[in-house]
């Protein structure tokens, strides 16, 4: 079957009339439209995808391509998806129900609905919630397959990062971002001085409340005085993306603080910096070493806990913690180094380990702590504050370069697997 004959399969051709119980019964005949390695693409699957794309384009006011073009491009997309899903199946890529549930909850939240409300809304639109779940599962597998195959093709050198950081895009990347709230009390440019003075006095009253601890949002939105404010949340902005009036003020404000009233031709403004990210990043780091014992078939969790407690007592009695780690720790990555994990920061370890670090004084050995890996004791060697600004900027630059290369490499990889696959379009 050619692409042209596939077009017929979408229309009224694929309808069979069969006599039964004295009247005609109509059935849709499904057909294979493409063989893709060990999989097939069915006419019904192609038809449903085309219908879905057509509905989406029309709902967005986008012109729908000619039918033959739409079918050809959709079939090619299904072929590429099939190849990737087969790769995922061969390497054992799996999406658990918990991961899928979390994805569905995120989609519902993006639509400002609870999961149950989202399910009902889909069904009211004639869509199957179960089918959508399976489509999301397939998309997540494809994303995992793409990430695993494409990322290993990307190499980013230190020189590339250096060059990027000297470019206009790179310089902008290193600038801090601010989330700015703004309240404008409108006053005409030719307003009498008495009106301006009264408005300033009113704003000063509101400022006293804000600086006394009340929320900027609540004070402005709860305003019951003689003035009506405009403005609102400007969202996250780089300094150069803010209006000139604000870009001169914002750098002088600490997070959570509000400017004095600022006059402009449109009125009096209050500028509030709600949040900031980027800029100087000072983090607290802890130098720690640990001993890990993993429960197994020959050592229960209770036995591992008892043994780790005994090792803690030996260390407390003066035995060298590092030597005990080399002899007993089952953490392959750190045992040879005496259990040394280097300088760590909050969020780098699992939550239970982070909590144990926070609860243990410098120079002390923690009580036994249970994590998903087993039983630990840890020793806090030192603490420090570290300026991670340049590390964070370089990490951002690396991510930007990786994303730029990712899109290019993904296109190359998709063409490669398409060329290498056995594809027979009927």
From TrEMBL:
This is Chaperone SurA. Keywords: Chaperone, Isomerase, Periplasm, Repeat, Rotamase, Signal. It is an enzyme of class 5 (isomerase). PROSITE patterns: PPIC_PPIASE_1, PPIC_PPIASE_2. The PPIase activity resides only in the second parvulin domain. The N-terminal region and the C-terminal tail are necessary and sufficient for the chaperone activity of SurA. The PPIase activity is dispensable for SurA to function as a chaperone. The N-terminal region and the C-terminal tail are also required for porin recognition. Chaperone involved in the correct folding and assembly of outer membrane proteins. Recognizes specific patterns of aromatic residues and the orientation of their side chains, which are found more frequently in integral outer membrane proteins. May act in both early periplasmic and late outer membrane-associated steps of protein maturation. InterPro entries: OMP_Chaperone_SurA, PPIase_dom_sf, PPIase_PpiC, PPIase_PpiC_CS, PPIase_SurA, SurA_N, Trigger_fact/SurA_dom_sf. Its main location: periplasm. Its EC number is 5.2.1.8. It is found in: Periplasm. It comes from Kineobactrum sediminis. One of its GO terms (molecular function) is unfolded protein binding. Residues 1-24 form the signal peptide. GO terms for cellular component: outer membrane-bounded periplasmic space.
């Amino acid at each position: 079957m050619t692409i042209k004959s596939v077009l017929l399969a979408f229309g009224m051709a694929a309808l069979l009339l069969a006599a039964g119980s004295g009247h005609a019964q109509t059935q849709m005949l499904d057909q294979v439209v493409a063989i893709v390695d060990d999989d097939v693409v069915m006419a019904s699957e192609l038809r449903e995808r085309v219908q879905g794309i057509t509905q989406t384009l029309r709902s967005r006011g986008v012109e729908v391509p000619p039918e033959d073009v739409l079918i050809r491009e959709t079939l090619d997309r299904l072929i590429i998806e099939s190849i990737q899903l087969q790769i995922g199946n061969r390497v054992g890529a799996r999406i658990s129900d918990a991961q899928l549930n979390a994805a569905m909850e995120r989609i519902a939240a993006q639509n400002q609905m609870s999961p149950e409300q989202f399910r009902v809304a889909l069904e009211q639109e004639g869509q199957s919630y179960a089918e959508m779940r399976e489509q999301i599962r397939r998309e997540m597998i494809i994303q995992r397959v793409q990430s695993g195959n494409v990322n290993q093709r990307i190499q980013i050198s230190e020189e590339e990062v250096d060059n990027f950081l000297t470019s206009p895009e790179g310089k902008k990347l290193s600038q801090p971002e601010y989330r700015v709230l703004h309240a404008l009390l409108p006053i005409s440019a030719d307003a009498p001085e008495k009106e301006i003075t009264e408005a300033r006095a009113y704003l000063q009253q509101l400022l006293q409340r804000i600086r006394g601890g009340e929320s900027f949002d609540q004070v402005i939105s709860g305003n019951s005085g003689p003035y009506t404010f405009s403005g609102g949340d400007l969202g996250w902005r780089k300094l150069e993306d803010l209006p000139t009036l604000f870009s001169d003020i914002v750098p002088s404000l600490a997070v959570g603080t509000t400017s004095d009233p600022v006059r402009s031709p449109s009125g009096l403004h209050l500028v509030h910096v709600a949040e900031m990210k980027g800029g100087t990043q000072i983090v607290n780091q802890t130098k720690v070493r640990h001993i890990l014992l993993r429960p197994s078939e020959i050592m229960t969790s209770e036995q591992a806990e008892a043994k780790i407690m005994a090792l803690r007592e030996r260390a407390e009695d003066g035995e060298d913690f590092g030597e005990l780690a080399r002899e007993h720790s089952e953490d392959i990555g750190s045992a040879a180094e005496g259990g040394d994990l280097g300088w760590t920061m909050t969020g780098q370890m699992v939550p239970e380990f982070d909590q144990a670090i926070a609860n243990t004084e410098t120079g002390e050995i923690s009580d036994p702590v249970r994590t998903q890996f087993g039983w630990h004791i840890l020793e806090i060697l030192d603490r420090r504050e570290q300026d991670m600004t340049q590390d964070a900027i370089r990490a951002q630059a690396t991510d930007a370069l990786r994303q730029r290369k990712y899109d290019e490499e993904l296109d190359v990889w998709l063409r490669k697997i398409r060329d290498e696959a056995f594809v027979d379009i009927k």
